[in-house]
# Entry
Amino acid sequence: MRLYEKNASELSEMLRAKQCSASELCNDVLDRINEVENEIGAFVTVDAEGAKENAARVDKAIADGEKLHPLAGIPIGIKDNISTKGMRTTCSSRMLENYVPPFDAFVADKVKSAGMTILGKMNMDEFAMGSSTETSYMHLTRNPHNTECVPGGSSGGSAAAVAAGEAVVTLGSDTGGSIRQPAALCGVVGMKPTYGSVSRYGLVAFASSLDQIGPMGRSVKDVAMVQSLICGHDPMDATSKNMEYPDYAAGLNENVQGLRIGIPKEYFGNGIDDSVKSAVMEAVKQYESNGAVIKEISLPSTEYAINTYYIIASAEASSNLARFDGVKYGYRAKDYTNLIDMYEKTRSEGFGDEVKRRIMLGTFVLSSGYFDAYYKKAKIVQKNISQEFSNAFEQCDIIATPTVPASAFKIGENIGDPIKMYYNDVCTVTVNIAGLPAISLPCGKDGKGMPMGLQLIGDKFTEQKLLNAAYAYEKMCGGFDTLAKITGEAK
Amino acid sequence: MKIDIKHIAKLARLRIEDDKLEKFEKDMESIVNMVDKLPDVTDTLELDASEPMALREDKAVTGKFTRDEMLANAPEVQAGCLVVPKTVE
# Structure
């Protein structure tokens, strides 16, 4: 077994027991990237030199007997909308193709301080707008389980790299499902933490009230380790929650005796594949036979979730993306006659079609005469959705649903139909609307041999409970088989 | 609902090429029709007081970056300043 195939928790112990060095580990993952990256396309930037330098530093620290963070020397990939000082951060957009941040995001600083080996930056849908990574200006990313299929999105590079062994763990960001949906489609573990638990400082903003950075990995413990590293209060993010955050990995517990699991019927209706429904219900049965209590619940406002989400997210995006004007940083058009002409040409050439659609939808719902009917109404529905979740969490500890209605679709299949693409997020957007934590776990493969996802949702700031429930399912399954055997004809 | 794409694009400081106008119009109309389905609500919109945002102290942060660092990503710089088209006649 090669080093790249192992999980972070195992590698952490091997490094300490001197069964391998950080440099050996780093080189093996870089070799893996060389072997499969042509086929997968998970990275926008690979920083082999920087990775090797960090690994050498960690090896020296180990040799000197220094006390190190458990994740020191573990190779990580970072989504390309998270600012990394001195390393290009493109958001997979022409607008930021050559942008090199002068500062580190809060989470990038945490990753560096822990001595993790940063492999590079992961491909994504442009400005995180998409569910297939096809809107990336850079290149396509392919699903390691079938390279003719999409990896999901927007954190498609982060998910594909973990499934392909091109990174041990990665960071993604999730505004409406962008960590959980690709995690499900690539058969890995991905968590969207509670809004406010991970600082957004240095995350290029899409929809500020919904965005949250989170970890992806091949086991629940790996995800718990990374979450413990990146969470915490940060004065630079006004929405960051100031509280004590536990060490989630140390607290993992697989006991589900008496755990109340809610099953919301609205998540099992039309549009959800039968194979997905039965896989999720099979997982629920496993919980039950291990002592969990299953309760049917109702979240009636779910039917408005997609609409509410696209109104709020696009409204915020139209405002957040107003900063890209060709003045201080980023792309600037070559020929223009005056300031307005420069703005319009810069933005029209710098943004792709999906980003333009969302900016225009946001502009429309905020525009005079439509604000009350769309934006204001959506904000009220948001409150109702949150309230329904709060009520549900009085009856249950965890809510179980599918992550995605079906397994990965073919590249090009949905790209011409925005509405069809948007409905990929039907099971995930409610979590962002309500600011809750949720995790996607691999739950078997469908008839096409493609992974499906089980989503567990928790109440605000109950990540430990959520991770424990996830850990229990992983144990019931005898571990997750998360590393893909790379197949497919497409090149 | 009919959407005036050119007007919305102008508000958003975007320009949609003529050959893409029809597709944009069709897509935007179907997206607006989709998000249009919202329940009738009578509640008023109030801020969530349970999670107040914490503002930082209103103090200038100095010495963190050099001028050169801050201008390194600018499309056009002259004499340590950003260059933009003439805005005042």
In short: Chain A touches chain B through 66 residues (CB under 8 Å).
